[in-house]
Write a structure and sequence with these properties.
With about 120 residues, the chain is mainly alpha-helical. It is built from six helices and no strands. Helix 4 packs antiparallel against helix 6. The protein is elongated, with a radius of gyration of 17 Å.
Length: about 120
């Protein structure tokens, strides 16, 4: 049995699931560091600052996911040769390149527009 093959057969029950896995939500935890700013600025209990931080966290997650999908799209040929990366959704052919590109661009556009709106608030 190939490494992780059982996981990927289960995880990729459909394209929406493959897109979610390709967005790499396990990396979203890194974006929690944005809340450190609230702790050190003493505004952790300020509802406006907390709301902005939560929205910023979400936008970082969206931007990061778009970047991960774009990276997997551009590296798909090399990833197909890698013993573990070959099971990523785009490298495995579960997401076609056009769909990956559309999602990568859409997520980046949403993050950029959201950041613009958040900075104006």
């Amino acid at each position: 049995m190939k490494p992780f093959s059982a996981f990927y057969q289960f995880a990729f029950a459909g394209q929406p699931t493959a897109l979610l896995v390709g967005a790499k939500p396990m990396h979203w935890t890194k974006n929690l560091l944005i809340f450190v700013a609230l702790v050190f600025s003493g505004t952790l209990l300020d509802i406006d600052a907390l709301t902005h931080c939560i929205l910023g966290f979400g936008l970082f997650c969206v931007a990061g996911s778009g970047a991960y999908i774009a990276n997997d799209l551009f590296d798909r040929e090399k990833d197909r040769l890698h013993p573990f990366k070959q099971y990523r959704p785009i490298a495995a052919g579960l997401i076609d390149p056009t769909t990956g590109l559309i999602w990568a661009v859409a997520l980046q556009a949403i993050a950029l527009a959201g950041a613009f709106l958040l900075s104006a608030a």
